[in-house]
Design goal:
The structure holds two protein chains of two kinds. By secondary structure, chain A is mostly helical. Chain A has two domains: about 1-115, Four Helix Bundle (Hemerythrin (Met), subunit A), CATH 1.20.120; about 120-270, no CATH class. Chain A has helices at about 5-25, 30-55, 65-85, 95-110, 125-160, 170-200, 210-230, 240-265. The radius of gyration of chain A is 19 Å and the shape is flat. Chain B is α/β, with parallel strands linked by helices. Chain B has three domains: about 5-160, Beta Polymerase, domain 2 (2-Layer Sandwich); about 165-305, NAD(P)-binding Rossmann-like Domain (Rossmann fold, 3-Layer(aba) Sandwich), CATH 3.40.50.720; about 330-425, no CATH class. Chain B has 18 helices and ten strands. Chain B has helices spanning about 15-20, 25-35, 65-75, 80-90, 95-105, 115-130, 135-155, 165-180, 195-205, 215-225, 235-240, 260-270, 300-315, 320-365, 375-400, 400-405, 410-420, 420-425, and strands at about 5-10, 45-50, 50-60, 90-95, 185-190, 210-215, 230, 245-250, 275-280, 295-300. In chain B, helix 7 (about 135-155) packs antiparallel against helix 14 (about 320-365), helix 8 packs across helix 9 and helix 14 runs parallel beside helix 17 (about 410-420). The longest helix of chain B is centred in the last third of the chain and has 49 residues, at about 320-365. Chain B starts with a strand and ends with a helix. Classes of the chains: A mainly alpha, B alpha/beta.
Chain lengths: ~270, ~425
Amino acid sequence: MNHLFPILTALAYLSSFGLYIRFLATGKKLTGRLGTLFLGLGLVAHYFALLERSRGLHTVPYHDLYGSMSLFGWLLALTYLGLELYHRQQSVGAFVMPFILAFFLAAHLAPADRLSPPAAHGATFAFHVTLSILAYAAFALSFVLSLIFLGEERLLRSHKLGNMVWRLPPLELLERMSKSSVLVGLVSIAIGTALGFVWVDRLSSEYSFYDPKYVVTLLVLLLYVLYLRLAGTGAWRGARASRLCIFNFLIVVLSFTVVNLYLSHSHRYF
Amino acid sequence: MEIVLVGLNHRTAPVEVRERVSFTAEQARRAAEELRARGILEETLVLSTCNRSEVYGVPPESSHECAPGLSTFLSEFHSVRPDILGVSLYHHYDQEAVRHLFRVAAGLDSMLLGEAEILGQVREAYRFAHEQGATGPVLNRLFQGALEVGKRVRSETELGTRPMSVASAGVKLAERIFGKLNERKALVLGAGTISEQVVSQLRDRGIAQLQVMNRSRDRADELAKQFGGKVVGWGEWDAALQSPDVVVSSVSADEPVLRRDIVERAMAARGNRALFLMDLGVPRNIDPSVGELYNVYVYNTDDLSEIVQQNRNARESEIPRAQGIVDEHVTKFLSWQASVELVGLVDALRVKMREERASFIRARMELMKHLTETDRAHVEKLMDEMLEKLLLGPAERLRGEKELRRKIQNVEALRDLFLSNREKT
């Protein structure tokens, strides 16, 4: 297999990570813009890396755990880039890039998956999986943003500002970014889940309706709706809402790992 | 093409002298006009701020020779005795004048290290002089360079980013919580000087609504009128604390005026929207336990002063980086200056050689009368081509190679080598 695109992706993501860190340290606008540029280049190279891998294996990217992880990393990068451009805020890049890099590198450095995935194909299924992974990526992003919020809020309350606080996004912007991200995640998971049910309905003879994954997904949906509802109101506004967002993501991780691998009959890597 | 700078600033002159030597726009225009009319300077620019008055110029002859005349002019222009002015004035020439201006534009020479206003003042002084036709190619290039230095220092270093006063530190902190303040509301408790400073900063940041609460209604009215706010009656906490995002307090009181129960009630009424409280009073105006309330951020004078001190240290640590940018642009400017002078020298040499060629041909042709007109034309053409070839190569290299220009340090020596005094002028 040609390693050009994975290498280019890794180099672009690493450069972007380095530039975002430098931006956080120095505040140079050009450095931040270069960070965004390299993230964009990484996204393009990552896309071709995914495409090449899928062609090589004659299957979809989410065929195995590592492909799913790589796709997750790509969608995380894509969601973050969209959010960064929408909110014009580059200080978060240094915190998101390690996650993107970790998923990309874990997917591309790890040995091939030995588990065989469920026999699945078709556009409906493809959209179901891609949208679900996009939702997880968006939730991961809101998780990172909530962590930054809590860290910055603690620094501001304790009056220990240091150098970094002046570079981080304002607390209210972090809240808005987190909500935007959750909104993207909710829309994606709602459509993705609906498509999943459509697909299951077509194959009802083959697949059970009573999958623990459905319950957990519904729980995730409800928890994030609750977050969106509470984040703008009274007692939950601010740090409490961020804590809820972090808790919600732990459920997502649970759904992505334990439920998929050990409890679900029809889900493996997404 | 030398540069001279004569001026004084907060380091060399007390305010009593600075205020006598400052220029209004009209005075700056008149001074520039007179300096050129008297033949002291060919290009002139007056930079006058509350902390400095400086005259930059390009003299027709040596910059060292013109400096005393410039000092005398300033003394006469402002009617200040030369002995008083003399001790305060500094003179910088060429490279040092360039470096000084670039340091000024960078905020390195300011009373408040890295302050932002000076760049706008340099820009305005340049625009004004340029519009008056007082600047020429040298000062145009010099001041464009200075503006670039100022911009780069502000965007590439932290010299000007950190707040340096308690008031600006408080406002910047509010921005850490709320982001832009143009949709935010503020309540000011007390109408003293400190409050005024903070209100001014908040207004600069575009605060959407301002409320003033003060024991003396008249003073509250005055401050509200000055900054376009509205007055709230003293002690009407429930109404006053419902909408603001930022509260600034600098009241003279023995006990805290904002007690925990008042803020607690207010937070419940406002649905726990974040509240930033700036306590600038001594003794403190806000009960310290208010800082424990959810979504309430309280900063007192000591907290803000500590931030200012940290920022001062951070700004000072940025000086080497800013100085690096200044040095880079000084080298760039001097390289440009040398290139212009060298190209001028080559052009002068070309004119001289053409003249030499004409007299040479005239003398030689007398001895070669057997040549036809066509042959003579050929000889003349050959000589022209040879001269062009001799000069074209070096001229092109001088234009294109920065390193070569840097190596040729003393242009005057070259000029002396090739040209007589008459030709040099």
